Write a sequence for this structure.
């Protein structure tokens, strides 16, 4: 598996250096400055100090975004659109299905946390 190192600089948080595979996809940043990154069939969480943990596994995540309440929404693709869904993870990690049978390419919330935490610079 090809690995890349990426330096992500966030306003008022600093720079996070992360190692990602060539399959890395969507990313979202929460209010605490944690980076959530879809990579293969998992979502990884990178703390501002660079610590990596597995947030969710067994998914096919295409899109990630936070709403204003800190909930993480995930576009979970599947082999067929009928099985695709949008999942919601609450800040305490509880998962629920918001919608089934749809497969959008991405998501965004007006006024959500993502709008406040846009990376200043991403360097490969």
């Amino acid at each position: 598996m090809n690995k890349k190192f990426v330096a992500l600089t966030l306003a008022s948080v600093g720079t996070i250096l992360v190692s990602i595979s060539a399959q890395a996809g969507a990313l979202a940043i929460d209010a605490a400055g944690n980076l959530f990154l879809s990579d293969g069939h998992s979502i990884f969480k990178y703390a501002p100090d660079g610590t990596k943990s597995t947030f969710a596994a067994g998914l096919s995540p295409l899109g990630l975004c936070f709403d204003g309440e800190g909930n993480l929404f995930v576009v979970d693709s599947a082999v067929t659109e009928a099985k695709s869904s949008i999942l919601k993870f609450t800040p305490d990690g509880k998962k629920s299905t918001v919608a089934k049978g749809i497969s959008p390419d991405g998501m965004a919330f007006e006024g959500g946390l993502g709008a406040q935490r846009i990376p200043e610079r991403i360097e490969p």
